[in-house]
Write a structure and sequence with these properties.
7 strands; alpha+beta; 7-stranded mixed sheet
């Protein structure tokens, strides 16, 4: 399940919903990851643009990878502005075995950071400033990628 929201994520509501959806699925592990906007470099928050067709394709490949291990992956991400100390990203794995869930959540979050088509901007004095230093070029993205 891939969910996109405008603005900050309601962490407790999303995790509760996911848990309730899977509570009868006979999963021995539920491993969530919550990404929160940190107070650094004088920013007021972050803003996100998402290219949904590529994100959906990327996510579906991860769903298939998880399914081969008997697991389920869920993800929520923000579009637009997210202020300091709010969440912009939640991922979770449900798996019959904890080791599978622990390994998948680590791989998923790292691959997300490297390959998901989401562009991050710093919010500074009510302006969006592209966060080029903290961005990763997407393989094969051509002009959409960061200059090397």
């Amino acid at each position: 399940m891939l969910e996109l929201y405008d603005g900050a994520l309601n962490v407790s509501a999303i995790l509760k919903k996911w848990y309730e959806q899977q509570s009868q699925g006979n999963y021995g592990a539920f491993i969530p990851f919550v990404g929160t906007v940190r107070d650094e470099d004088g920013i007021d928050g972050l803003s996100f643009d998402i290219y949904e067709p590529i994100l959906i394709s990327w996510y579906k490949a991860w769903e298939q990878k998880a399914a081969k291990k008997g697991a389920i992956i869920k993800m929520a991400h923000s579009r637009g502005d997210v202020m300091l100390h709010e969440s912009s990203y939640i991922a979770a794995v449900f798996s019959p075995k904890r080791r599978v869930a622990l390994e998948l959540i680590d791989e998923f979050v790292e691959d997300f950071k490297a390959n998901a088509p989401i562009w991050k901007y710093d919010l500074i004095d009510n302006k969006r400033v592209y966060a080029k230093e903290r961005s990763t070029a997407i393989k094969g993205s051509g002009i959409l990628g960061r200059e090397q």
